[in-house]
Each structure stands twice: as C-alpha cells, then as structure tokens.
Design goal:
single chain, alpha/beta, FAD/NAD(P)-binding domain, Enolase-like, domain 1, 5-stranded parallel β-sheet, 11 helices
C-alpha cells in the first residue's frame, strides 16, 4: 500500500487528493496542515471582507467529501523533510514515513520592514484567520491606511470601505498597478475608488507606524506626513513558503523548481500551487503562478503522477478574472508592455465619457465602463484586458491561446475610429467557423 502525504490544505493539495483517489483507492493518504480552518476558498476572502459572502459560503466541498476520500487529516506543522529515509518530522516530534510526498505550502504575505509593524492593528490578508481579525478590528475602527499596489491591496481597500472605514490608500508610484494596467485603466480604477470616498496618496511610502498603548494610532510617511488611523493593512507582495524545501535540499529559486510532471529535484517529492515554479514554454523559463485555477490543475497533475498515471502540466496562458473597484476585469496573457518595442497596444473605451486633463481624468459617473485593450506581437494577440462587459473574455482567451494570425485585420483594428469590440467579435466568429470546417 502506497503512503501518500500532502502538506497543505489549499486547492492544490485537495486537487491532488482527488486525483490520487481517482486511480488508487486503497493507498493511505495523510493531509497535514497548520491552518485550523482547513480547505476554503482564498479568492472568496475578498467577498467575505465586503460582506457579500458569509463564512459558510467559503467552503467549496461538502462536509463529507474528505471522509469519502478516506483522508487522514493532521493539524500540525511540518518541521523537517528527510528525503533520504522518506520521512517527515512534525513540530510535535512525531515522525511520519511517506512513499510519495507533495508540498503545497502556498505563499505568505511579505512583511513590511517598518518600525511599528508588530503593533496591534497591523493586518494582512493571507488566510481566513486574517480576514476574521480585520472584520473584528473594523467594528471598532474609524480609519485605516492600506499599503500596496496590486489586487490584494485593492481587496483590502474595498473591504474596509464596505465597512464604512475611512480609507487612506498609499501608492508608491504615480498610479495604480502600473506594471499591468495602462494609464487610462489605472485612472478608471482610481476614479472609482475616489467616488467611493477613498483618499489616494501618490508617490507615498510608509515610513513608520506609530502606536499608543501597543495599538496603531497613526503612520508617518517617508516624506514626513502624519496620517491618523486605527488600522494599517499591508499588501506588498507574497513569498512562496520554501523553507522546508530548501532545508531538504530541493532545487529552489523563487519557488520549488518542478518538471512538467510537477516533480521536484527529488523523484518522490512533488510540489504544486503558489510554492511551485513551473516551466513556461512561452518564455522558456520557470515561473511562479499564483492563481487559483492553475493551482488546482497543478495539484491534479501532481496527484496523477504520484499515483502512477503519467500526466503533464502545460502552463496555460494567464487568464485572471478579478474585480477592480467593483468593475469586473479580465486579464489575459501578456499585458505589461515593459521595454519590448515589438509589442503594440490598442485600446478602446466606450459607454463612459472621458475628458483628458493635465493631471486627472474625470468620468461621467452615470455610465458603466467598457474598455478593451489588446496587446499584439508578430501578427498575433498575445494579451488583452477587458474591463466591464465580459462578452469577449472567452473568445479572446481562445485567440491568444491558439496564436491566431490577425494579419488580415490588424491594420483595420489599429485605426483610431475602429469599433474594436465589434471587429474582434466578427473576426472570432469567422475564425471559429473556419476552424470548425478544418476539423475532420
């Protein structure tokens, strides 16, 4: 009987268990996690903060599912992995042998290297325990400072505003999420936040968190500005939890390096999810992928291989559906321009009237935003951002994934007055018909 051990109760770990059981019903499976809440939807925490989801709605599996899969669950922390003797040591001293091991320890929020970061009232959004703590503090708080420029920071901003907390949002640069969004997209998000009452501070970095009686009372920026607050929420990035793997001698860069079979440098140890660094055929490099969907797929592929069924993980193009300032936004493929002069971008916005000003953009607030941006290279679409109306999300995902040649329509799309959404829709329908005709 094969002894399987999974470290981590997130989606990658649970998916691996389901894959193992689909092939091996008699093997012994042990799930080890130090998260007291078990398996829940981490993407759902944003909606839990805003009050749109109750805690009971965060759990994707029926209560009886893990017992049905015959999984032994240990709430503990793994202290050491010993690849030679195929053994784990838990923090309580118990030693646990394994034949196949998967590391799905995820990632944790980066800590702020700031004086006062250990004061009560300094929060992050890593897990359900953090979300509960934020909600508890919000009941007694009047104002908060949020630091960070990505999706998690925005989730914290929106969660706090939904709970009537006066929110000060610190951006280190000149606009929101500048490495992904273009200037207009950033301004759309910022405008909507300001409409919700969020005060945005540009070119602002946290210098010090000031306390009174052990609790947050204010912050001082690096420029010396003082902002009173009861809470400070930090979202400055995540770090894969690789300490166990490093100590065990596995190959680790930013994450655990794995093959297309999700196998680490040790033959019987696999990794999946936020902690795994997977091969990306597009770039020829190993990359981190911190999205829920890929973590689920990676876990399933790892589980299949652990159970003896050869399976390969092919990293898909990025496809992330999120909500930015209450605006549904889909990000597909490569959208950050960087320094690549071979990338061309075109964008169209409609249904919202924009007025360009030297330092600001004002919008007519009575309209919903619909904005489409395409990034092209070598006569193919390599990326897209869709804000608002999501009709083109799936079609564009297919056009990017299939690397469809757009040379016949590219120049027409680039015309300033081109009805881009309509043209893309027509092109997609024609391509789908011709593609279907080519199928045997």
């Amino acid at each position: 009987m094969v002894r399987y051990v999974i470290i981590g109760s997130g989606v990658a770990g649970i998916s691996a268990i389901e894959a193992i059981r689909s092939r091996d019903y008699s093997g012994d499976i042990t799930l080890i996690s130090d998260d007291p809440f078990g398996y829940y939807s981490r993407p759902g925490l944003a909606y839990y903060l805003t009050g749109e989801l109750g805690e009971q709605h965060l759990y994707p599996l029926p209560q009886q599912r893990l017992p049905e899969l015959r999984v032994r669950i240990l709430q503990a922390r793994v202290a050491h992995i010993q690849p030679g003797p195929h053994c784990l040591e838990l923090d309580n001293g118990i030693r646990l042998p394994y034949d196949r091991l998967m590391i799905a320890t995820g990632a944790s929020a980066a800590r702020a290297d700031t004086p006062g970061a250990d004061l009560a009232g300094v929060v992050k959004l890593d897990n359900l325990e953090d979300a509960r703590y934020i909600i508890k503090l919000a009941r007694k708080s009047r104002s908060a400072v949020v630091v960070g420029g990505g999706i998690t920071a925005l989730e914290l901003v929106e969660g706090l505003r939904a709970r009537k907390i006066r929110t000060h949002y610190f951006l280190r640069g000149e606009r929101y999420w500048s490495n992904v969004l273009d200037e207009t997209e950033s301004r759309i998000v910022e405008h909507r936040l300001k409409e919700e009452g969020v005060q945005i501070y540009y070119h602002t970095e946290l210098g010090e968190i000031l306390g009174r009686n052990g609790r947050v009372a204010a912050v001082r920026t690096k420029a010396g500005r003082l902002v009173s607050c009861d809470m400070v929420a930090i979202a400055i990035g995540i770090r894969p939890r690789t300490a166990l793997a490093k100590e065990a001698g596995l190959q680790v860069e930013r994450g655990i390096i794995v093959t297309e079979h999700m196998q680490s440098s040790e033959a019987d140890i696999y990794a999946a999810g936020d902690v795994a660094q997977v091969y990306d055929p597009l770039t020829g490099k190993h990359v981190l992928d911190s999205l829920w969907g890929p973590a689920r797929e990676q876990g399933y592929v790892a589980g299949q291989n652990m159970a003896g069924q050869a399976s390969t993980y092919l990293k898909p193009i990025a496809f992330n559906v999120t909500r930015l300032a209450n605006l549904t936004t889909t990000i597909i493929g490569t959208v950050g321009r960087g320094d690549d002069e071979d990338l061309f971008g075109i964008a169209r916005g409609d249904s919202e009237v924009w007025r360009q000003l030297p330092d600001a953009i004002a919008a007519q607030a009575d309209f919903e935003v619909n904005r489409l941006r395409l990034v092209m290279a070598n006569n193919t679409i390599i990326g897209a951002i869709i804000m608002g109306d999501q009709t083109l999300s799936r079609p564009l995902q297919q056009l990017v994934a299939k690397k469809v040649d757009i040379s016949t329509v590219r120049e027409r799309w680039l015309k300033p007055d081109a009805p881009l959404a309509e043209l893309v829709t027509d092109f997609y329908l024609q391509w789908r018909q011709s593609d279907a005709a080519r199928q045997p």
